[in-house]
Amino acid sequence: MNQFHFHPQAHLRTVLPLLATIVLAVALPLPSVAAEPDRLVVYSGRAERLIKPLLDSFQVKTGIHVDLLSSGTTEVVNRLQAEGSRTPADILITNDAGSLERARELGLLRPLTAPEIATAIPSQFRAADNSWIGLSGRFWVVVYNTTLMKPADLRSLLDLAEPRWKDKIAIPNAGSEYLQAGVSVIKAVHGDGRTKQFLTGLKANAGTQVYGKSSQIVEAVAKGQVALGVVNHYYVYRYLATQPGAPIAVLMPDQHEGGMGAIINISGIGVVAHTKHAESAKRLVEYLVSEEGQKQFADLNKEYPLHPRVTADPALPPYKTTRIAPVPLTTLGKLREPAMALIEQAGLR
Fold first, then answer.
1. What is the Cα–Cα distance from 46 to 232, expressed in whole angstroms?
2. pLDDT tens digit sequence for 230-258
3. Is 37-137+265-321 a CATH 3.40.190.10 domain?
4. Phi then psi for 182, rounded to 5 degrees?
5. What's the angle, vertex CA 30, arms to CA 38 and CA 126, rounded to 5?
6. CA 318 centroid distance within chain
7. What distance in Å separates the CA atoms of residue 75 and residue 224, rounded to the nearest whole number?
8. What is the tens place of the pLDDT at every residue in 176-235?
9. Distance, first Cα to last Cα, the chain
10. Which CATH class is domain 139-263+340-345?
11. Which helix (H) or strand (E) element contains residue 190?
12. What is the pTM of this model?
């Protein structure tokens, strides 16, 4: 006989995002101009400063006006699901492949047929049916203070759980999509036991140095409040672009023989299944994956362009020589919930 077991933590994981979606729907009214054919509505889980300059460039180039609604990735995906066929959204942009895959599984995105996309973006950075397409890549790296440690002091992310790093680490909070994606990859490579051990040690070593923004982690490391932190690489290089004398540098972990490889993730885009402006939406996707659009991701954001003919900022670690964890981006959606369960079990907040 089947039994239903009520798990309070699992229930909270279901209810809290839904409540956040309700709050978001009240706080962010639907754009009233969505019905106009020369306008697009973009729901974005990315920080506005990272995506708005590119949308502005598209608007200037095409004359198609873009209304941007920004919030957390989980909130915008939940909002799309709640709105269903009534949504005014034409485009979904997120900062994480797992969220895009979840949106695809929920039927919120439509497949795209466009030779330009297949040429511009390698298949490992796209859904099989092109319902989501990667726009830019980032590595989850260690940022360290060059006066407090040497790169030889650390080889793997898993080493951060060792007692010698107590009170020397800054980490993202449990709600971070970056943390959730990183833990998903570690779980896929090393299994639950090793991952939980890592998270328990990470929590103990970070103490109160837990932040809601990656930029805050970089700043804490730069000020010497901690020796190191875990962030997406571009936050470090954006900081150095404005403060080139800061005593910080990037350490790419897990590059040694037998190491799991660096954790990579992408920002990406999908056309909403219920869009009323499919052709204009497709034009925006094509622009963002074009060489012109990809160059902006590289130049403005210090991210890795995914177009093979566009080069990254030369200050970044070379992508071609970086050893990458062998976990397909398309699996991050299924790994998200189990990873969040491990994060909760470890007591991370």
1. 13
2. 999 999 999 999 999 999 999 999 999 99
3. yes
4. -60, -45
5. 65
6. 20
7. 34
8. 999 999 999 999 999 999 999 999 999 999 999 999 999 999 999 999 999 999 999 999
9. 37
10. alpha beta
11. helix 177-206
12. 0.85
